[in-house]
Amino acid sequence: MVWQLLLQGVLHQKRLDLRPTMKSDTHMQNDIYPKVLGIDYGTKRIGVAVSYGSLAEPLMVINNADSEKTDNHVVIESALHQIAGICQVEGAIEIVVGVSEQAMADKTTHFAKMLHDFTHLPVCLTDETLSSQRAEQKLREARAPRRKRSGKIDHFSAALILEEWLETKQA
After folding, report:
1. In the beta sheet, which residues pair with residue 55?
2. Distance between CA atoms of residues 116 and 118, nearest Å
3. Are strands 35-40 and 92-99 parallel, antiparallel or unpaired?
4. Residue 136: how many CA atoms within 13 Å on its side-chain side?
5. Each residue of 5-35: b (16+ CB within 10 Å) or e?
6. Which residues neighbour 146 within 8 Å (Cβ) at sequence distance 6 or greater?
7. What is the mean pLDDT of residues 80-103?
8. CB 94 within 8 A of CB 34
9. Is the backbone of residue 27 left (phi > 0), alpha (psi -120 to 50) or beta?
């Protein structure tokens, strides 16, 4: 998996080295495998990953914290703009959002609806229970430095969520 190789230092995190140069929007639409964006939603951070065929690459972590946050806070507008921009640049045709349990599931479902309304792309919900813990475990197994393991790992969680969803689509 691409993101595991990134962690091991086999590949450098230069995304342009991992895929062909995109010359136009037409080229993006002609990719062999349609791209899907994976999202690990959180009220403070949103992890984003993108698919390349059956692989998922961690892309970035988007800030979702707001200084005027309320209990009903779901997503700040700038985060929606960033995700929409990533979808456009990557040529994503669908978005997969991981949903956990209990109260967070309600916020995530609301976020997914807002994301669909904002991007006009299909949004699929999938189980993401314990994805952050699994990502942290994979980072340990890959012998990633402690600072990487204790930092923001939401994009790695998003890659796990997306890879699992891709595997179920292939089965």
Report:
1. 52
2. 5
3. parallel
4. 10
5. ebbeeebeeeeeeeeeeeeeeeebeebeeeb
6. none
7. 93
8. yes
9. alpha
Element containing residue 60 per DSSP (H, E):
strand 55-63
Compute how many other C-beta atoms are within 10 angstroms of the C-beta atom of residue 65.
12
- 32's torsion region: left (phi>0), alpha (psi -120 to 50) or beta? alpha
pLDDT in tens, 126-163: 988 756 566 566 656 656 555 554 457 788 889 989 99
* Residue 96 · residue 79 · CB < 8 Å: no
Return the biggest CA–CA distance within the chain: 44
Reported pTM: 0.72
Contact 153/136 with Cβ under 8 angstroms?
Answer: yes
Contact 18, 51 (CB under 8 A): no
| DSSP H/E element including 137 | helix 131-141
Cβ atoms within 10 Å, residue 49: 28
Q: How far is the C-alpha of 13 from the C-alpha of 102, rounded, in Å?
A: 35
| Alpha-carbon span 126 to 105, nearest angstrom | 11
Q: Distance between CA 116 and CA 125 in Å, rounded?
A: 11
Torsion angles phi and psi, residue 37, rounded to 5: -95, 135
| pLDDT recorded at residue 30 | 42
Q: Tokens 């988007």 — which residue?
A: 62
- 118 vs 96: CA distance, rounded Å: 15
